[in-house]
Design goal:
Elements (H helix, E strand, L loop, with lengths): L2 H4 L1 E7 L4 H14 L16 E6 L2 H8 L5 E11 L2 H9 L3 H4 L8 E9 L5 H9 L9 E2 L6 E8 L13 E10 L3 H5 L15 H10 L8 E2 L22 H7 L25 E6 L10 E4 L21 E4 L2 H15 E14 L14 E10 L4 E10 L17 H4 L5 H21 L1
Parallel strand pairs: 4-5, 4-6, 8-9, 9-12
Antiparallel strand pairs: 1-2, 1-3, 3-7, 6-7, 10-11, 12-14, 13-14
Helix pairs in contact: 2-8
Length: about 425
């Protein structure tokens, strides 16, 4: 029997934020739990309603235990563009699939959910009464029902032009909710220790999901932070203000391995594949400078990287171009990730000049997704997810020099100047409009 014949249809209700990040998150989590995303399902755009084919309810529940981009998932019983089409679809749904949830010993309730429109209580009751043809034999229980069913109506995306009738109507059995509450409970505002560039909690969860991180994985962040205290008016860091204490705050200290201070351009790791995922936010040179250790006499980078210095030598701090940083990061990931492991990182870009060719390339890594988060009218950062598909060989670290992709990387080196140039222009424009 073909796989498509064994799949059940589910309706995902998506959150309306970080729209570009939603599809890669759901695809990654489905792969992690044994599902698969059909190519025909990649055209949802900004809609909050997605119909998915998933092998089992267990996979659907596992998906919802991880996603922060989806609000809820329903086993889809019917779908139509009008009430009549919905009722016809429900009448064609196999009765044997309904019966386990509608028998006389069960309790249930029906909820009405509308997107981009508010209904009166009278209108909601009218929609529930219209479903009396369904073979419900159990009792209604509004407080603690065994089964919850939902009618979901989609009135489009334009709040200034709400249609009288919905574009689509869905009916389904509620399965589970996503993990949206984690965004608030792990909020940086509540965190004991934060740095200058602490990542937003919601985006942190999205990064981990894009990286397909699972239990017992070893995950590495080569740019974990500055270690500086950045609370207002706080000059010094307290004895319990550190990364370990943050994990302790959330009851996650047992998952913490260690942190070390080192130069990302000169990794101190032995050769080998250690990590299931590398998830990081490199410095862009705006809030924190991009510097590396080195010597003014060192041999040009790319020819001999591991210059030995006497013990008494104190290396000077040299500029660390963004293009070099990302190339070092990709080489490090290619060398230390297990096959199938993922690299997830942020790439800052100057929007007017950005092209897809600017995304760093490596022969051992395959691009999985590329999502934009706007920072300003002229800058953004892109969440890049790559998967290791080939065993690393020494010659692979120089492949970028032979690639047409290498030259566009250089545009990243002036990101800081372009960022502040845009800020200066914006301030000047605002001052001019004020004077007028």
């Amino acid at each position: 029997m073909a796989l498509s014949c064994t799949l059940n249809r589910y309706l995902l209700l998506m959150a309306q934020e970080h729209l570009e990040f939603r599809l890669p998150e759901i695809k990654s989590l489905l792969l992690l739990f044994g599902g698969q995303f059909a190519s025909s399902q990649e055209t949802y755009g900004k809609s909050p309603f997605w119909i998915l084919s998933i092998p089992s309810e267990d996979i659907a529940r596992n998906l919802m235990k991880r996603t922060v981009c989806a609000k809820s998932i329903f086993e889809l019983w019917g779908h139509g563009q009008s009430p009549e089409e919905l009722y016809s679809s429900l009448k064609n749904y196999p009765v044997e699939k309904m019966v386990p949830f509608l028998h006389s010993d069960s309790t249930y309730k029906i909820k009405i959910h509308t997107f981009n429109k508010t209904l009166t209580q009278e209108e909601k009751i009218k929609r529930i009464d219209a479903l009396e043809f369904l073979p419900f034999e159990g009792k209604v229980n509004l407080k603690k029902p065994q089964h919850v069913f939902s009618v979901l109506e989609d009135y489009g995306l334009d709040p200034n032009c709400i249609p009288e009738n919905p574009h689509n109507i869905y009916f389904g059995r509620w399965i589970a909710d996503g993990q949206r509450e984690l965004i608030e409970s792990y909020s940086v505002k509540k965190r004991h220790f934060i740095g200058n560039t602490s990542m937003d909690a919601g985006l942190s969860f999205i990064m981990a999901n894009h990286g397909k991180v699972k239990e017992n994985d070893i995950v590495f962040d080569p740019f974990v932070g500055t270690g500086k205290a950045t609370r207002k008016n706080q000059k010094w860091r307290g004895p319990d203000e550190n990364i370990r204490a943050n994990l302790r705050q959330y009851g996650l200290e047992k998952y913490y391995l260690d942190v070390l201070v080192s130069d990302a351009s000169k990794p101190s790791w032995r050769k080998g594949t250690y990590f299931d995922a590398i998830i990081t936010d490199p410095p862009y040179g705006i809030r924190e400078s991009t510097r590396r250790t080195g010597s003014q006499k060192e041999i040009p980078k790319g020819i001999e990287k591991w210059e030995k210095c006497p013990e008494s030598h104190v290396p000077v701090s040299l500029s660390y171009h963004l293009s070099d940083m990302f190339l070092d990061l990709l080489n490090f990931a290619a060398e230390t990730l297990v096959l199938g492991g993922r690299l997830v990182y942020w790439l800052p870009v100057y929007t007017p000049e950005y092209t897809e060719e600017m995304v760093p390339w490596h022969p051992c890594l395959e691009l999985v997704s590329n999502c934009e988060q706007k920072l300003s009218s002229h800058t953004s950062r892109r969440l890049i997810t790559m998967e290791k598909v080939k065993k690393f060989e020494n010659r692979d670290q120089y492949s970028h020099l032979l690639s047409d992709h290498f030259l566009p990387y250089q545009g990243h080196n002036s990101f800081r100047e372009k960022y502040f140039s845009g800020v200066t222009k914006r301030i000047a424009k605002e001052e001019k409009s004020t004077q007028e």
